[in-house]
């Protein structure tokens, strides 16, 4: 307990500063102390014990849209750097989305719904696997990785990409589908929402996405040393949180032109493309996640379960 208190005392200023940068006038974080002290610091002690001398530990952080993955992974990163003196590199699977032009081709040759970023099949898996390979090479060389701009729905210019100049001790890969497992083919037959019912009558899109989970994404997720999962109570809550997220993006970019900010209807339809896998992850997470952080109705971590112990 003393070490947790000591850690909290040393990191709280930096953590609060980051949290403040994410708040808006109408959206304030509550119970910050408890979230950091009771939940995120113990997670960081767990990660620090897992670190290796030779290779970086690769930690996945999964959770539905709007669940708070970026915020949680950023605070974890701050604590690991500040208190544990570890070199941490954090990136989202979103940054590895295929470009708009690549998705246009995919939508033309496979299925129109693949123009919408998000589902398995719309990420550059080879680029991610190559990144994991490079950070493990003995003679480390600097690496450049893409950065995705959701407001323009495309990759940033290369001069804005991430630059990794030294080998990290910890890599955090966060994303809504991190750790996701495929469904049985029989589960794909019944549409679960209007998008599937109207736009995927012949199951082409569902089968394509599921195949990606069975093949490329399975290979990718095997590279992870552990998976942390942010578990919301239901999909309706995620929709509510994701709408707030889009509103925040709109406020941050209101003076910029040519930005693809979504309306409420567009957000709801966008999320429907995520629904099948998200709801399956609610059921599957306990089978593969090392740590499950449960979220209450107020978007706060209410409990934490360490499924994989330290020893």
Textual characterization of the structure:
By secondary structure, the chain is α/β, with parallel strands linked by helices. Helix content is 45%, strand content 14%. It has a single domain (2-18, 32-306), classed as Rossmann fold (3-Layer(aba) Sandwich). The protein contains 10 helices and 10 strands. A 6-stranded mixed beta sheet has the order 2-7-1-8-9-10, with helices on both faces. Strands 3-6 form a two-stranded antiparallel ribbon. The mean pLDDT is 93.
Average pLDDT taken over every residue: 93
- Content of β-strand: 5-15%
Give the assembly state of these chains: single chain
* Strand-pairing-aware structural class: alpha/beta
| Total of domains | 1
Integer-rounded radius of gyration: 19 Å
Distance between the termini: 19 Å
Instruction: Tell me the CATH superfamily.
Output: P-loop containing nucleotide triphosphate hydrolases
Note the total helix count.
10
Q: Describe the largest sheet.
A: 6 strands, mixed
Q: Which regions have little confidence, pLDDT < 50, spanning 5+ residues?
A: none
According to DSSP, the number of beta strands is 10
The proportion of residues forming helix, as a percent range, comes to 40-55%
Task: Give the CATH topology.
Answer: Rossmann fold
Order of helices and strands: HHEHEHHEEEEEHHHEHHEE
From the 3D coordinates, which CATH architecture would you assign?
A: 3-Layer(aba) Sandwich
* Shape, principal axes of CA atoms: globular
The level-1 CATH class: Alpha Beta
Query: How are the strands of the largest sheet arranged?
Result: 2-7-1-8-9-10
